[in-house]
Amino acid sequence: MWGDWHQIWEVASTPDNVPIVAMLFLLPFYTWYAFREAFANDRLIEELEKDPAKAKTHHRKTFPWKPGWDREVHTWPYLMRVEFLAAVIVTVILMVWSITLNAPLEEPANPNLTMNPAKAPWYFLGLQEMLVYFDPWIAGVVMPTVIIIGLMAIPYIDANPLGNGYYTYKQRRFAIWAFIFGYIVLWSLMIVIGTFIRGPGWMWFWPTQTWDHNRLIYEVNVDLHDWGIFKYIVPQNLWGKGIFGGLVLGLFTVVCAWGIHKVCALTEFSRKIYARMTLLQIITMQVLLIMMISLPVKMALRLLLRIKYVWVTPWFRV
Amino acid sequence: MPEENAGGGGPQGLGDKVRERAADLARVLKEKGKEEIEGLKDPEKTQLWRSIFRVKHDETPRNRALSVLSNVFFHLHPAKVNRDAVRYSYTWGMGGITFYLFIVLTFTGVLLMFYYHPSKVQAFRDILYLEHDVPFGKLLRNMHRWAAHLMIIAVWLHMFRVFMTGSYKRPREFNWCVGVILMVLTLLLSFTGYLLPDDQLGFWAVTVGTGMAKASPMLGHEGPFGPELGMTPFNDVRFALLGGSIVDANALLRAYIWHCIAIPLLAAIFMGVHFWRVRKDGGISGPAPVMLESEIKEEKGPRPVILRPSGMR
Known about the structure:
The complex is a heterodimer of chains A (about 325) and B (about 325). With about 325 residues, chain A is an all-alpha fold. Chain A contains eleven helices and one strand; from the N terminus they run H-H-H-E-H-H-H-H-H-H-H-H. Chain A has helices at about 5-15, 20-50, 50-55, 75-100, 125-130, 135-155, 175-195, 230-235, 240-265, 270-275, 280-305, and one strand at about 70-75. In chain A, helix 6 (about 135-155) packs antiparallel against helix 11 (about 280-305) and helix 9 packs across helix 11 (about 280-305). Chain B is mainly α. Chain B folds into two domains: about 20-80, no CATH class; about 90-285, Cytochrome Bc1 Complex, Chain C (Up-down Bundle), CATH 1.20.810. The N and C termini of chain B lie far apart (about 95 Å). Strand 1 (about 70-75) of chain A pairs antiparallel with strand 1 (about 80) of chain B, so a sheet runs across the interface.
């Protein structure tokens, strides 16, 4: 059962999973790369803030500069040669990849023979993993819509004028942490779970654990109003459950909103930025962040405490 | 030679004249030919060359600018760019790589279309034929698939870079939104292509994927308030996507048309807007000189509201 390295190799070497394995290396690399640039700029910013005289004359980049140098270079050849080189390198990578690895082709489509596990393409595995924690209308429809709208809302809710056009960490701590939380922790981690952890029956298999097609798990997920002590407190009728769930969710929302508010007002600088935000911006940011936070919370509730729904009504369950 | 004079009169017969003319002609032709071959050593001076490229390519700043500005493919670029913008450490080149992969995918995709019928009878056999009988068919299919995956990675990294450099900030807010739409289109392109080989992998991925559509609130027959609004498996949003209540021949045809025509066209339009706006919003965002906290301008009067005119910059 355990120590099955062959299993993990089989998953990782599936041709369609190669991109996600590549992402496992590319994402940390580029995160490090971005932060390296950001920290270099931060050091420069600190230096200039201490020395206003220098701030007036300095060219304000970490790159070398001497007075008299052109601030711009000709696209031809200085940019075009880089683009040409990039195209050549990408072509070579693509060629080698295509010669060494074949695109997968399974048996002809057969509606009577279910694939187990039936997995979406790797880039949608985050959404498929969400199906475990939420009903399909949330995981498959509402969440993707919120992700798209939320991404588009970013420029309109970020009231911080600093860090426009250069890497920086110090001047955009909150924005960077929020994005990394959504992009790396939620989106990428969910994909990794969907790819490497989920086996037949979409059951949880640790790495190196054999995917056992006959495995049965006798886990009983209960709704929050049936869980532990709540079973005895909550009136076990439609109204009781509905109101209890609504209250719990409302409390969660308030606690999250308060926490986000506290984080936004953590330092003097962040208070200054926070004060620039309009009410509409604050509300939009709160709604989006609370939805983001609710995902790992629901994951923990399900995986650790075996709780199925928090809020049960006759029309929908959350 | 007596025979030569036989036909003509006079000391110089017709034959001699012809010979002389021929020699003349040969000399002139030789000279002309020599001259023109000499000319080919300098192809930039030929009419053919000039008619195509229009400008000289001498090493002058003016010509360097013109070679970009007067070329339909190159003029996406400005004539000059920020001296540090060509550094890899700033842009990572991911936007350009995404565009290049789109071109690669269009090229390999068109070639694949020559061998593919979007019908239940033919589709899977076409893939087998492509893999086993078409010269370089396997390579073609592999390249199309891996370029698609690579494009998704490149799009995500591009978005990551744009975020980390704060490039979505004013005046580039709208272009970020266009970029988000392009990312969604990229994912949809890849997803619609998944079904086309008509194998188990694509069939079940699309079954799972479109299965979510039936749970759409109000628009799906299993979603909240769906049945109340008269949704059935035969009239809801999933039916519209698949052209039926199951993944079958109509779904294959729809996926094919979305994949090969509709989404690429949409993506091309949005790409045009995306690139145009990069230029109109002042070129790529940086690397810009760093700004200090003390330099934040206090806004005068009421704070700018996103839904109110904020003043052009």
